[in-house]
Amino acid sequence: DITPPGYSFQSFPRGSRGGGLAVIFKDNVVHHTSFVTNFEFEHSSFELAQFNIVLPEETVHFFLVYRPPPNGKNKLTDALFLQQFPDLLELCNTTQGSSVILGDFNIHFDRPDVPLTSKTVDLLDTFGLTQCVGNPTHEKGHIIDWLIHRSDDNIVQSTAVSSAIATDHFCVLATLNAAVPRASSVSV
Asked: How far is CA 108 from the centre of its chain?
C-alpha cells in the first residue's frame, strides 16, 4: 500500500517481532535488480541486506543497514558493532562497481566528541569511505541516518534531507551519477 504507482517494493523482515529492512524502487529497474541477504561474515550487531542494480555502464550495490541501539534486552554493544562493521566496509571496497551503504546507524554523526562516533568515522577514513549526509535526520536534531560511499567514487552527486513525511526520522534524498536502464520494447 505504501508503494507509489510505477514502483516496486522488496522487504527483508526481521526474524523477530516487527521491523526489518525494505527498499522501494522504480519499476523500470525491476528486471535489472538482485538481492543478497546471506553474507560470509557475522553481523549480529546490525541488520543487513544488499540490493544490486545492473545499469548500462556499471552495477551499483546498495548495502541497507539498520543498527539497533544497544540495550540490556538485545545485549548488543558498541564494541561488537566496531568489531563487525569493518567486514561490511571491506566488502564495500572490494565489490566491483559502485557501492553505497545507507541506513539508520543510531550513531550521532554530528557528535564527533562521542567515542563511538569518532571510532566509526575513523573506520570510514581507514577504508577510504565518506559519509555524506550533513543535516539532521531525526526529530531530536541528530544525523543518525547515513549514506556512505567510496571517497574516490563519484556515484553520489548530492544529498538532501526532507522532513515532509510525518515520522521521527526525516527522509534522506540522494541524487546518483548513474545512467538508468531504458525501458525495453517488444515488437509484435
From this structure: 16
Q: Taken in order 135, 138, 144, 150, is the CA torsion positive or negative?
A: negative
> Measured between alpha carbons, how far is 176 from 55 in angstroms, rounded to an integer?
12
Q: How far does the chain reach from its first CA to its final CA, in angstroms?
A: 34
pTM for the predicted model, two decimal places: 0.89
* Under 8 Å between Cβ of 115 and 77: no
DSSP structure class, residue 29: G
pLDDT at residue 129 in the model: 97
* pLDDT (mean) for 68-93: 94
Nearest Cα residue to 64 out of 8, 122, 117, 104: 104
Residue 88 carries which DSSP code?
A: H
pLDDT of the residue at 50: 95
Q: Which residues contact 176 (CB under 8 A, 6 or more apart)?
A: 60, 100, 155, 156, 157
* CA dist., res. 21 & res. 10, Å (int): 9
Model confidence pLDDT, tens digit, residues 42-68: 999 999 999 998 888 889 999 999 999
